[in-house]
Amino acid sequence: MPTLVIVGAQWGDEAKGKLVDVLGGQADVVVRFSGGNNAGHTVIVGTEEFRFHLIPAGILHPNVTAILGSGMVVCPKGLLEELDRTRAARPIIGTLKISAAAHVVFPYHRMLDRLEEEARGENKIGTTSRGIGPAYEDKVARFGIRIGEFVDQHRFARRLGEVLKTKNELLARLGGERLEYDAVLSEYSAYADRIRPYVCDTEVMLQDAVAEGKRVLFEGAQGALLDLDSGTYPFVTSSHPVAGGACLGTGVGPRAIDQVLGVAKAYTTRVGTGPFPTELADATGDRIREVGKEYGTTTGRGRRCGWLDLVVLRQSCRLNSLSGLVLTRLDVLSGLDELKVATAYRFRGETIRHIPANTWELDELEPVYETLPGWSEDLTGARSLDDLPKNAWDYMRFIEEFTGTPIAILSIGPARDQTIVIREDLIWG
Ligand code: GDP
Ligand code: IMO
Ligand code: MG
Does the annotation count 282 as an active-site position? Predict the structure, then answer.
């Protein structure tokens, strides 16, 4: 049963897109299971750069069926732009399918995202403003419009009328502008016409693929610490990026999952607000941001940077039941004399080895660091572990021992060939 889930093990942007592209060539199906176009997954192929927000990063492989799963929220406009952009660069790509059960993101979701953020004042989350939270709010309230309804012309016209009435009242209350039914209907009906051919019951398609022993790769978005339940609530996204979300957001059961790889940077970053115990608001943090070009793929915002938090990573290994880690961006740490890793926190006079459930308590945490020696060598040309300096080996070994999880793959640059597979057996089993 060769199925593989790839998830972000930190706060997103761990280089999941690169990994999905690298492993996607070996897969029959690649499916996104959570989030929407808040995600930004970068794939570098030679001199070309692709930024996927909704389409699974595996689509560049022509033999792959790329599925937008039922757990996603889909902006039709964004999806079509992305599809056109990708096809312009690559006339031959994989086959696209969209779950009829995924939810549609409409302009009122984006407007409400902005208005809700403004209303939060100092407590704002720093969302991507893509309307993701409000779209999931509608889904949970059983008020959302699903892709299957959206592409049914008559049903969509009726549902949009019902929903827009309520949304316009809400927008007016929050000081936003009203949306005109006719304008939204005509613009979105045109999108629906283009999207209709891709829509089907992808749950059945995936269940069949699993039953037939096809290689299915589940492409996570965001990261475990942004999970609605397990992350640093309320500074989280509105869906389930953890490995369990792969089942919820695609319609396959937990025993159909074979392997789970967690992608983690060799340090930590976070975009948006919310607690980040190992954040470096100093020259070292700035250096990591500049050397690592740590600017958001979706919003262009500078990412907050800090030391590797092993308490977070160990928690993530457990939450996702990781078979192995994919350590990325080790190259960015070259040239630092010393590297720190957090192995515990000081909290109200005690040493704790877990992340408190009460998010506000994270503001009081003082990380307890171990200091490891750095290395000066450039790692970007390494093609096997033997090419790495001893201190890089030791850094990796420390991570494996602390988390109790082997590093299956190492990434030392954005290109496909800057990837060292260490444990082939942990990829497809
Ligand atoms: P994702 O959201 O997890 O797919 O990650 P993003 O695409 O948002 O951000 C990862 C960034 O790191 C992209 O610009 C990648 O091209 C780049 N990248 C991927 N792997 C490596 C690596 O090992 N080293 C370096 N320096 N950059 C990498
Ligand atoms: P990928 O898949 C990093 C963050 C936002 C914000 C919070 C809520 O590229 O790793 P939302 O718009 O989802 O309501 O924002 O979640 N966030 C991400 N951070 N990478 C992502 O995706 C993210 N998707 C959402 O910055 O803090
Ligand atoms: Mg990203």
Answer: no
